[in-house]
Amino acid sequence: MIPSLAVMVGLLVQTAGKPLPARVTRAPAPAPAPAPVRVWRTDSIAYVALREPGHLVLLNVDAIGRITVLFPFGPYDSTGVDAGVPFAVPIPPAAQGNPATLVAVRSRWAFDFAALRGGAGGTWNYQDAWLLQPTAGDPLGALLDIADRVTDGRPYDYGGVKYSRDGAVAALGVPVQPDVCLSCVRHATPVAAAPTAVATNSVDCSNASLTNSFCGMNSGSVSITSVPQAAYQPPPPPPPAPAAVYVPYYLPVFVHGGRARFERPFPPVAPPPPAPPSMGVAYPIAPRLVVPSSSQLRSLIGRRP
């Protein structure tokens, strides 16, 4: 027992003589950089936090696909927002607590809302603007189409969030590329050209003298390298179009002493009624009136019986 005790004491003395190594302190891991755009909502308020100041537009899609511009409130309002402090935007009552997709777009340049405005009094044109029509199943793709239009092709940052029916945050997903997209040709896979068929047997028989035989026989297969093409007569050219002749609708013609073309004819004037016959027609010469004198009158009076 004594030897084992002596060994233990020696080990303790040796351990006490050697200092313990200092603990290495590691630097804390750097915090992850915040996202350029973060968006979330409460009961009636939507919040947007920007890493850098810029211009902001906040879009919302409800459960049935209707698109709403939450900020700015009008096409002519200011869109500048500071960074670092969450920016609060009120949510309409119809969108509170319902499934929705929120997308906030931040740009260094001012937005061009020419394709979205046009309503009465300078408001958002939800009736006639194509980009504000309800989406059919891809809310994120529809909102990013609006972002591409209002930014006029300039770079921008965006952040989004999707809420399910019970109010929980769902996966936002990625935009769905349409099956047919005329502007997405760069995403198509190049098609390799089909290899050209190589002739299995090629023999020049231009100088051969053949009588009831074949040239170029190879295991019973014959390959003709050139086939005379049938000469097709080109279609006749189309007849030339007749030259245009200008014919006026109305060509005024004036004839001396004549009547105008569109002048309404006057009704004929009725002749005046004949004058009644005169009573003196039987007496072409009127009788001469003789006035008796006073002496003649006395003589006529004196003869009265």
Describe this structure in words.
It is built from three helices and nine strands; from the N terminus they run αβββββββαββα. The chain has helices at residues 2-17, 139-150, 294-302; strands at 37-41, 45-50, 54-61, 67-71, 80-81, 87-90, 100-107, 157-163, 169-170. Strands 3, 4, 5, 7, 8 and 9 form a six-stranded antiparallel beta sheet that branches.
Give a summary of the structure in a few sentences.
The protein is of the alpha+beta class and 305 residues long. Helices cover 12% and strands 15% of the residues. Strands 3, 4, 5, 7, 8 and 9 form a six-stranded antiparallel β-sheet that branches. The protein has a three-stranded antiparallel β-sheet with strand order 1-2-6, with no helix packed on it.
How many alpha or pi helices? 3
The largest β sheet comes out as: 6 strands, antiparallel
Low-confidence stretches: 181-191, 249-258
Give the % helix.
10-25%
Tell me the radius of gyration. Answer: 57 Å
Strand content: 15-25%
Judged by helices, strands and strand pairing, the structural class is: alpha+beta
Alpha carbon gap, first and last residue: 226 Å
Number of strands: 9
Mean pLDDT: 74
Order of helices and strands: HEEEEEEEHEEH
The outline comes out as elongated
